[in-house]
Model the fold of this input.
Amino acid sequence: MIPDFSKDDITVVSHYIGKIFVALGIIQILPIVIGLICLEIAAVVDFFISIITCLSFGSILLYFSPSPQELNWRQGMIIVALSWFVAMFVSALPLYLSGHFECFLDACFESMSAYATTGLILIQDLDHLSHAHNIWRHLMCFIGGQGIILVALVFFFRGGDALRIYIGEARDDKILPNSITTAKFIWMVSFTYLLIGSLLLACVLMFHGLPFPRAIFHGLCIFMAGWDTAGFAPQSLNILYYHSFVFELVTIIIVLLGATSFGVHYAVWTGKYRELKEDFEVKILMFTIFMTYLVVLIGFSGNIDFVDPVSFFRYTFYQLISGHTGVGYSNIYSSQLSKWPELAIIGVIIAMGIGGCMNSTAGGIKVFRIGLFYKSMKRDIRKLSYPESSYIREYFHHQREISIDDNMVKTAMVITICYILLYFSGALVGTFFGYGFLPSLFESVSASANVGLSIGITNTSMPVFMKMWYIFQMWAGRLEFFAIFILVRFLVKTVKR
Amino acid sequence: MKKRLIRYIGILKRGIIGISIELVYPLIVTVAAFLISLIMFYSEISHR
Done:
């Protein structure tokens, strides 16, 4: 018999959600510091109000739900799904108070987009947003990319609880034996690259004439959103603002590293350099990048209207790599993207749908699952061509030699089907509201696979239901469904009581 | 704290070589993609 949800479940979930509130409140001290340095008093007040709200809600929940016993799996999943939703609301508060959003829903859209590392934006007059609010937008990308829970994991959770939370946040690989040490390793890699990447980007910008403090600020923002494949930028023109091929090359390197599994980072960082060459996921990622780029290039045949090959490469490859890794950076206007040949757009849609590596900051179906289907198909074909009594096994290398089993393929298949349904649901919603099917599919895949490239549909004037549906797509796509299914069941059962 | 710092520096030492190697793979992807687009561009131009 399936166990029912009890009052204990509600107490445990409330306790941990209280901790998430407190953690989000503490993190907002950083934008306050930036606001004080830049003398942005109005922004400081916005964040002060937000911190008070977070700490108040957190304290109330912690007071009424005292320290619980160890978490079980379903409680862990509910906490993950709910905490992302709670984080969206409370983090939208300072954004809304900034006055750069038409309504609170737009601010919620922006914060979910940041946390889910999507990059679709509804902010108005971004170029005049305060530094404090801007750093908060990018910090949300960084926190979301690492995993909101991963932030709290290091400080607030016990070993056994941590694993249940960690898996719930769509991270399947435990790089180290313990989830908390894995979380700490992920943070160490990210902070080291944060230092190197931000400085490198700042150097390029200084070379192009940006003053030192601005170059550092832009470098930091672009790195945080690039590494976590979110695609936010401090300027409304996104990467087009910088007009620099070198800057684009550096961001390509950052986003490709961001879309690589932390398992591979760990192997390479601990001296197993061959892992980069042998890892099955990296090989599949490279293969799918080339194949989808080929589709884009074939789409452009007969339409190449460029003076030199470098412009053509920048125009096509940057959007493709941006879509495949899920970053959503763009060096062209969305109106230009909408004029791309249909086949080229389909190439980008496929790339966005596939996404990056498992246990990376990228979204989408993930190249690991695509590779798994390929290996499983290969095994089935071999089975059919050998005598019935023979036992056929297929292996792949992902940190170690792994044999394919049917359960693994079944789970991957369920998640892939969920993704495809999510992609098409958004396309149908878009078509219902009068947009063309292909642009609707593009925007829907971009939201669900947490990419952030836009063909022009996402803007403040789009229907309210579409905004809400995209928020759901970003949330469901980021958490890979299971945590959300359990949350829905929990809510239905609680209401029925 | 000191032990932790020493361990971190140890990992970082190996990490520096790791980072350098990791940077090679995105560069290979970019250069290879550039070559494909170059072939495409010139084959298109030559057919005009």
Observations:
- The interface with chain A takes residues 8, 11-12, 14-15, 17-19, 21-23, 25-27, 29-30, 32-34, 36-38, 40-42, 44-45 of chain B (CB under 8 Å).
